[in-house]
Amino acid sequence: MDWEVKYNVGEDSSCEEANIELAEAGCDLIINNSFGFEPYMLKVAPDYPEIQFISCTNQASAVDDLANTHNAFANIYEGRYLAGVVAGMKLQEMIDNGEITADQAVIGYVGAYSFAEVISGFTAYYLGAKSVCPSVTMKVQFVGSWSDATLEGNAAQALCDEGCIMISQHSDNTTPATAAQNNGAFHTGYNNDMISVAPDSSLIGTRIDWSVYFEYAIEAVANGESFEQDWCHGMDEGAVVMTPLNEDIAAAGTAEKLAEVEQQIHDGHEGGDDGDIRRQADLIGDHLAQRGDGDVGADQHKGGRKAHAEGIGHRRGQGQRGAGAQHEAEGGVVAKQSVQRNLLESLTGHASPPCSTLRAKYSAQLTALLMAREDIVAPACVFWMPLASTENQISPSASSELCAV
Fold first, then answer.
1. Residue 360: CB partners within 8 Å, gap ≥ 6?
2. Highest mean pLDDT out of 66-70, 348-352, 361-365
3. Rounded distance between C-alpha atoms, residue 72 and residue 246, angstroms
4. DSSP 342-393
5. Could you tell me which residue, 215 or 284, shows the higher pLDDT?
6. What's residue 353's pLDDT?
7. Which residue, of 148, 168, 327, 404, has the fewest CB within 10 Å?
């Protein structure tokens, strides 16, 4: 097998040119491995129907009518739930030891963008932490970039300044870890093992093992076989893994609890025991209003672009399920959250609607479920992600409109 690789490709017309050059070079399979590459890939794919094109972490290629385009992702929220369990165990240990009070168990989460992928991730993380530390709360700050070391570090520092003693992230760099260590806080990471840069702070991380999908897709092309247009797996196929646990600073019993919950997720069970799931059944309030100043809800921190909102997580891609079954009750919504139970089942009648259904047809209904509450603090527009043109999309403008998932 021969490889042609294009480096330093921007999310712009240079990506279209790179796809054309690879196609003209005789490649049988072209993998676009950045979120912003997809629009340019889709300009090229129709002209080369004999070549298979893969877009990683996207959406349109999962549902278009082209026979040679594919989308791939992984259930990374599973790993984030586990990282949340590790974080929650550490916070609960600190409470039990008298090092902090219950109301000081505050997580700070550095998010890249207010996309569904990020939202489902911090929702799963929060639920994992809450399953073992019932008093935990969370604050979220977005940096507007997948990878900006300075902004990520500044966001982590701001969260520490606001009293967060546990930092996590959906961003690429190690600066949230080092900021946490510099402030005496703990940390869980993403994409890399960050213990080496923050040995006194970083507890664990989670990442996608892309080799699982690449082997599947490459083998299919090599054998002249078809493969899924929209692929998404997690711990069931080893596509989501945890980085090493820092047992020097983790709470006692963490390794055992981690193995227990990971096995439950791997087996397709809920992320936690029945008691955990019952503790995560909460009454969500009955309003979500975005004001022109960027705040959400009636009781916000004015001028701070913060919103009290419960993330009812779900993700891009078929099978990306973030939160549990729900039903209406007393003017609100009771959300019984679990890692592998689909919130949309009650809306769609299907356990795993395709991503186009998940994001387009039901975005307005999902928005109606995002109600104000006090245990997660996040910026306005947290529940918006770019969508193709659909009748149910709600624009993320600075007006009084709601923001669609």
1. 387, 388, 390, 392, 393
2. 66-70
3. 30
4. -TTHHHHS-SS--HHIIIIITHHHHHHT----SSEEE-TTTT-----S-TT-
5. 215
6. 35
7. 327
Residue 384, burial from CB neighbour count under 10 angstroms (0-12, 13-18, 19+): buried
What string of DSSP letters covers 289-349?
Answer: -B-TTS-BSTT--TTTT-EE-----B-SSTT-B-S--EEEETTEEEEE--TTS-TTHHHHS
Per the rule left: phi > 0, alpha: psi between -120 and 50, beta: everything else, 193 is beta
Q: How far is CA 228 from the centre of its chain?
A: 22
Surface-to-core class of residue 252, CB atoms within 10 Å of its CB (0-12 exposed, 13-18 middle, 19+ buried): exposed
pLDDT at 367 over 90: no
Q: Distance between alpha carbon 7 and the CA centroid of its chain, in Å?
A: 26
The per-residue pLDDT for range 28-43, each reduced to its tens digit, is: 999 999 889 999 999 9
User: Both ends of the chain: CA-CA distance in Å?
Assistant: 41
Give the Cα-Cα-Cα angle 146, 324, 202 (nearest 5 degrees).
Answer: 40
Phi first, then psi: what are they for 290, rounded to 5°? -95, 125
Q: What is the predicted pLDDT for the residue at 377?
A: 53
Q: Tell me how far apart the alpha carbons of residues 327 and 324 are, in angstroms, rounded to a whole number.
A: 10
Q: Are the C-beta atoms of residues 109 and 185 closer than 8 Å to each other?
A: no
DSSP of 224-288: T----SEEEE-TTTT-EEEPPP-TTTSPTTHHHHHHHHHHHHHTT--SS-HHHHHHTEEEE-S--
Q: Could you tell me the pLDDT band of residue 345, with boundaries at 50, 70 and 90?
A: very low
- For the record, the structure tokens of 108 come out as 């700070």
Percent of the chain with pLDDT over 90: 61
**Is residue 382 predicted with pLDDT exceeding 70?**
no
The residue type of 96 is D
* Closest residue by Cα to residue 116 from 325, 392, 363, 376: 363
